[in-house]
Each structure stands twice: as C-alpha cells, then as structure tokens.
Q: What sequence folds into this?
C-alpha cells in the first residue's frame, strides 16, 4: 500500500489519480515513536483514498481522533470525510471479532483498510502467535475486501505501530520482526535533528521490493498543519518528485 | 508437460477450479521462495495432465521441507484438508492434524494455528511452513481439498474460534 502513502507524501502528484495502482500493493506498516505524526499521515492517506472515486475507507482506531489533522484546504472536503468510516474497537477481542466478521457486512467493499495504534491491541496479548494471527487476519480481511470489490479494485492496508523509544526489550524486537514479515512495505517516521530550522521528521518509505527507498521531510506547524518536502539528500530518483510542491524548502 | 507451469501462479492463491475473482496474494518474506512455487506448479501441471506426480518432484519436496513433506503428503492422502467457504466469498482452510486436532490455515496469507507454526516458522524462523500449511498447498496442487460451504455467520465463528483454541 505504498502508493497511497507515496501520493500523500508527494501531495497527490506522484501517480496521477492512481487508477491502477491499488492492486497487488503489499500491505504497509507505518512505524514511528510517540507523536511522530502517524495518525496525521494515516488520516491523510484516508482522505487521499476517499477522493479516488472508489469504495469507502475503513479507519479502525481504539479511540476517536482528538482533532482532525489539518492539511491543505482542498482535501478536507465533506464529501471525502463522509467516505471515511471510523470504528473504535475497544479491545483486542473486539478488534478480532470485527475482522473475523468483516465478510458479514453489506454495502460497497472498502478501498482502504487503516488501523491506528496496533501496539495498543498487542499489549493485552503479547504472544507471538496472537500477534501473527492479528496481522494475518488484517491481511485476510483486506484480501476479502479486494475480492468483493472485484478485479483491479484491490483494498489496501496500512497499519500504524508505535515503536519503543529506546530500543525496547527483546520481546518488542521479536514482535516487530514478526510484523515486518506480514507487512513487507514499511514507512518509518523518525525525528531528524539535522533538518533545516524547525522540528522535522524524516519519513522513509521502503515499498517492499517494488522500488527504491524514498524519503521526505515532514514538518508540523504550531497550528497543526502538516507540510511535506522531498528529502533533499536523495539521489537518483528525483524524477519521481517532479510534481512536488515548488518552493518547498523551509 | 510444463507448458502450463503458470497453472498455479502461487501456492497462496486459490486453485482456479474453485476460485472467484483473482485475489491479490500478499508478497514478501512470508511467501514461499520462487523455487518452491515452481516445484508446486510443475506438480500441478502433472496432475492436470492426469500423470502421477514424478518421483523427482517428491524427492525435491522432501529435500526442501524435510520430514514435514512426508507428513504433509500423509495429510493429503487422508483427505485431511477442507476448504471452507461462505456465500460472501471469504474462505479458510481447516486441517485435521494427525493428533485429531483441527488447525485453521488462512487462505490469503501464511498462517496456521498449530504450535509448530508459532515456534518453528514465526519464532525461530528455521522452517518455511508447518506440515499443515504444506498440506494445504499440496492439496491445492492435487485437487484433493474437501469442500464445505457454511453460512457467513458460521465462517465468523470458525475464524473467531481459532483464537480460543490456544487456551
């Protein structure tokens, strides 16, 4: 599901409207420490997918968002917001129940399945088999949505996981390694001290064997607005950024 | 007779005979190596042509998977693999293990509820699959899956029950 996120990071300009990009995209794991903008990026991905004229976006999170992340005004249209369906499973058991029964729901199949805060569902049940089953069920649910949507209209999957501040214990490392096997594409959000001027995050997208790593700088303004700039240090693939914002250097 | 080696494009995809629209199998380290997929598709081609599976393929299978290969072939011989599907199109495999316990294998990605999968595949990473998952792939190849249709609600119960049988 790297393509949706790539379009978000390229401000919607990377691959046009993205008619044929959703199929066969590997599921993506969005990784970062507390407050690294994972929710904002997930929400931006939801808005992006909601504007594609396909099925709704299913956004799973343990609790309602505190505020709608701000982005460019055009993207936050009510018609897009209406296509994002939030559900708030309060426990791991409820999340599993939701995924196990996803095929009972009627109506158009979602075009994108998002889960924020996977770590909150893993702390209750830290065994590796439980984590694997949760990851596998997320994949299975997205595959079922793809199947329902029909050929060429796959359902993407992006899951956000909060990483430990300082290394974490071996159990966490093991769990992360396990999840990475189910999510071949990953995007890391890390603070970057060398960023120009203000507090800047480095977003590194590893698309899971479908292309080279790409990087962006992500900055949150005091008013919550997210600005994204192509990371200046990358070499060789500047062509993929030709549509990026002009005057992006802060 | 290898002209149709693409018959099974991936052991993680459903066999065409019982497939609906193509399902996107996830790619990544949790899928089988290309050499194994090739082996399975050659076996599928042999089965499709009505020929017995060549001994060399069975030997390769044993070389790659060790004792799991023999156990998985035993499971296939005993018709222990059942493909359960509901009207929604969602599917899941159940494998009746040699111990008499039933294990759940997801149809869309690598997952089996047995302890060997948790330990050898997930934790230690020294096995590609457990014998149940291998039996699922082999029964797809040999077209010996039992088929069972259940209601959407029953499929939910099967998927949910997997969780509790661990306790």
A:
């Amino acid at each position: 599901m790297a393509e949706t996120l790539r379009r978000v990071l390229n401000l919607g300009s990377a691959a046009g409207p993205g008619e044929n990009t959703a199929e066969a995209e590997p599921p993506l794991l969005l990784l970062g420490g507390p407050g690294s903008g994972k929710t904002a990026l997930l929400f931006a991905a939801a808005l992006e997918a909601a504007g594609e004229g396909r099925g709704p976006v299913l956004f799973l999170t343990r609790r309602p968002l505190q505020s709608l992340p701000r982005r460019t005004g055009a993207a936050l249209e009510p018609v897009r917001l209406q296509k994002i369906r939030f559900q708030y499973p309060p426990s791991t058991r409820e999340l599993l129940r939701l995924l196990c029964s996803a095929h009972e729901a009627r109506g158009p199949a979602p075009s994108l399945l998002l889960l924020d805060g996977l770590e909150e569902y893993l702390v209750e049940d830290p065994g590796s088999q439980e984590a694997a089953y949760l990851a596998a069920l997320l994949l299975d649910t997205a595959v079922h949505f793809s199947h329902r949507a029909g050929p060429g209209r796959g359902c993407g999957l992006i899951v956000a996981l909060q990483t430990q501040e300082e290394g974490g214990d071996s159990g966490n490392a093991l769990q992360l390694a396990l999840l990475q096997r189910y999510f071949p594409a990953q995007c890391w959000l890390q603070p970057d001290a060398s960023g120009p001027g203000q507090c800047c995050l480095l977003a590194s997208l590893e698309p899971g064997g479908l292309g080279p790593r790409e990087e962006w700088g992500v900055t949150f303004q005091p008013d919550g607005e997210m600005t994204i700039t192509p990371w200046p240090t990358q070499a060789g693939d500047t062509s993929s950024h030709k549509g990026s914002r002009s005057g992006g250097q802060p | 007779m290898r002209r149709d080696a693409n018959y099974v494009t991936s052991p993680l995809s459903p066999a065409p005979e019982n497939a609906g629209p193509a399902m996107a199998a996830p790619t990544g380290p949790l899928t089988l190596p290309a050499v194994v997929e090739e082996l399975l598709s050659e076996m599928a081609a042999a089965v499709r042509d009505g020929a017995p599976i060549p001994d060399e393929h069975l030997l390769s299978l044993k070389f790659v998977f060790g004792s799991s290969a023999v156990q998985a072939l035993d499971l296939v011989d005993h018709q222990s693999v059942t493909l359960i599907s509901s009207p929604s199109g969602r599917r899941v495999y159940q494998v009746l293990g040699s111990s008499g316990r039933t294990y759940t294998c997801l149809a869309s990605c690598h997952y089996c509820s047995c302890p060997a999968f948790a330990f050898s595949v997930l934790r230690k990473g020294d096995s590609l699959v457990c014998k149940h998952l291998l039996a699922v792939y082999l029964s797809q190849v040999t077209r010996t899956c039992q088929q069972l249709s259940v209601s959407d609600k029953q499929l939910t119960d099967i998927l949910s029950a997997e969780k509790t049988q661990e306790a």
